[in-house]
Amino acid sequence: MTISTKRNDFTGVKVFSATMAQERDRLGDRITSWIRENPAVNIVDTIVTQSSDEAFHCLAITLFYEKATE
Question: What's the predicted TM-score (pTM) here?
Answer without folding.
Answer: 0.80
